[in-house]
Design goal:
Shape: globular
Order of helices and strands: EEHHEHEHEHHHEHEHHHHEHHHH
Strand content: 5-15%
Oligomer: single chain
Radius of gyration: 20 Å
Length: about 325
């Protein structure tokens, strides 16, 4: 398909046929990504008969050709996170401003980053080209947007080296939270990244036999530790650490400078309008649960937090407190 015909479409799925990745597209027109997660926006769009029935399919290489024709807005900032630590709130705050394009945990990004899992012959250079093309497709303005943010899935910190090669110089942050609180959140409702088999054992630096002997809570702690270690390992001058406790004001204070932005009083007021609501379910009001999580944590869960996560949490906190002043916009 001629990439010029995809001007009003967005890539919504990467799938495989005969050992090669293909892209499904969905008609978007001037619609924006305003839901909490990418897949929620796609589900909403597919309720429209035209978008449901007319879904072009291309190769990933067509993304590269489309980028050359219509490159979109350059990335303003990337959001990485430990999980269950306020990243969805931050992405919703950014999406509240019409000038921002915000992509939150898009499954096609995961499909591109992990294309070499399905086909080991796919090179890093191919994945870099495809990732650039994919994000460029998302970054095309539809209503005059000027800034482009991507919130990656939590486990993508383990691909930070490749992402940095694809987008050198893009400011990024890593969000994290007190370990016991994150573990309790996953104990209540497991995220996909902490289900055994979702991530390859070699990513965790453990052999399959060792992983098989772990309890579900220990495996969760192990995965979360590796996610944090990925951020620590690939930290560079473009990085900044953000503790959950700093939300929400950190966005229009330190992070605005880090992302080389400035917010007006009217924009801060628009951002603040999302704060009373549950970030993952905006139809509900937000209810703080920090104390409940601390109360619910068992001695066994606290021991796992101490063993697996406290060292990386301490390192993150030490680095956060010793960071230099934010860059001026």
């Amino acid at each position: 398909m001629n990439p010029r015909l995809l001007a009003d479409y967005m890539p919504i799925r990467v799938h495989w046929e005969q050992g090669y990745p293909l892209v499904d597209w969905c008609h978007f027109g001037e619609a924006r990504f305003v839901e909490s997660f990418f897949d929620q926006t796609i589900e909403k769009r597919l309720r429209h008969p035209f978008a449901l029935l007319f879904r072009p399919q291309t190769s990933l290489d067509d993304l590269v050709e489309l980028q050359a024709i219509d490159p979109g807005v350059p990335p303003t900032g990337f959001i990485f996170h430990m999980s269950r630590c306020g990243s969805t709130l931050l992405s919703q705050m950014l999406a509240a401003l019409p000038r921002n394009i915000v992509i939150s945990e898009a499954s096609p990004i995961d499909g591109v980053l992990h294309a070499n899992w399905r086909n080991p012959n796919i090179t890093d250079e191919q994945r870099i080209c495809w990732l650039r093309g994919l994000l460029s497709a998302y970054a095309r303005p539809r209503q005059g947007e000027q800034h482009f943010f991507v919130k990656f899935d939590s486990w993508h910190t383990l691909e930070l080296s490749l992402i940095q090669r694809a987008f050198p110089g893009v400011p990024w942050i890593f969000l994290y939270r007190e370990p016991v609180q994150v573990l309790v959140s996953h104990q209540r409702q497991r995220g996909p990244q902490v289900v055994q088999g979702m991530l390859p054992p070699q990513w965790l630096g453990l052999d399959p036999a060792t992983l098989a002997d772990m309890t579900l809570d220990e495996y969760t702690a192990c995965v979360l530790a590796k996610i944090c270690q990925g951020a620590l390992h690939y930290r560079n001058a473009d990085a900044r650490w953000v503790n959950y406790q700093q939300l929400p004001a950190v966005l229009w204070e330190e992070l605005a400078a880090h992302f080389r932005l400035a917010y007006s009083a009217a924009e801060i007021a628009a951002i603040q309008q999302v704060l009373p609501f549950n970030a993952k379910n905006p139809g509900l009001y937000f209810v703080g649960d920090t104390k409940d999580k601390e109360h619910q944590a068992t001695p066994e869960l606290r021991q796992l937090a101490e063993q697996w996560l406290q060292p990386v949490y301490t390192a993150l906190e030490e680095q956060r407190h010793t960071e230099g002043p934010p860059i001026s916009p």
